[in-house]
Amino acid sequence: MTRWLVVGAGGMLGQDLCAALEAAGIAFTASRSADLDIRDHDACSRVVSEHGIIVNCAAYTAVDDAESHEAEAFALNAVGAANLARAAREHGARMVQVSTDYVFAGDADEPYAEDAPLAPRSAYGRTKAAGEWAVEAHCPESWIVRTAWLYGAGGGNFVKTMARLAGERETLSVVDDQRGQPTWTVDLADAIVRIVTSNAPFGVWHGTSSGETTWHGFTQEIFRQLGLDPARVEPTTTDAFPRPAPRPAYSVLGHEGWRMARLAPLPDWRESLAKALPSVVPSV
């Protein structure tokens, strides 16, 4: 059986991917940042040589910090991805590169297709777009899986933050002019396994939940499912919370690739939130 290498296994998605592989009986190696510096090509080559499927969950994800540390973000998100892709090709392995909605401008009015032109507006988005290009160039037998608005049990995220603030404040002001698809890392991990094990076509895939909402709508649903009054969540605008990196106003990704491959896309975000809450916010 082909052995998988999960790079970035200590992260929120990496943890759930390892759990999904274990549940499926698939042999894998969990590689954390302390185990492998993906900025080192020789190190990548040594580790990759023992595996047939490489999944790169490692990334510089501090979106605002990337604006002033773009070189550091590029080293991980682009050079690191390129090193893994080159190593995969050298050793006859296939690769999954996890990417992001930030590769788009975020100014669309309909879901972004898998082949929509890239137009990142932030340093983070530019470095992740460069990573996509590097993987496609160096390892043609690869899947680029874009995702967005991730939350899960294994790391800090929006759901945990909103649940905590619900216990600290009477009302919350949450932006209502950014649209996207809240995505549970368990669903994304399952999607990655399904793409690879079904021998789905190489290329770009969108690994986001079905349906769409705003951060405000997402928070109201979190409150509702926690048995709290959603009216405590008040709408506000992006301009009210200025940040160093521009946020996409529209991050909804299309799922035509799943239909073309006759595979089920990820579930609706509300359905997944209900399943996720006991593990993501166990104390509530």
UniProtKB/TrEMBL annotation:
Chain ranges of the RmlD-like substrate binding domain: 4-278
Keyword Oxidoreductase among UniProt keywords: yes
Listed InterPro entries: dTDP_dehydrorham_reduct, NAD(P)-bd_dom_sf, RmlD-like-bd
Keyword Repressor belongs to the record: no
Enzyme Commission designation: 1.1.1.133
Pfam family, one: RmlD_sub_bind
Record GO cellular component, one term: cytosol
Record keywords: NADP, Oxidoreductase
Molecular-function GO terms, alphabetical: dTDP-4-dehydrorhamnose reductase activity
Gene Ontology terms: biological process: dTDP-rhamnose biosynthetic process
Gene3D superfamilies with a match to the protein in the record: NAD(P)-binding Rossmann-like Domain, UDP-galactose 4-epimerase, domain 1
Pathway(s) served: Carbohydrate biosynthesis; dTDP-L-rhamnose biosynthesis
PANTHER family linked to this entry: DTDP-4-DEHYDRORHAMNOSE REDUCTASE (PTHR10491), METHIONINE ADENOSYLTRANSFERASE 2 SUBUNIT BETA (PTHR10491:SF4)
Cited function: Catalyzes the reduction of dTDP-6-deoxy-L-lyxo-4-hexulose to yield dTDP-L-rhamnose.
Family of this protein: Belongs to the dTDP-4-dehydrorhamnose reductase family.
Protein name as it appears in the record: dTDP-4-dehydrorhamnose reductase
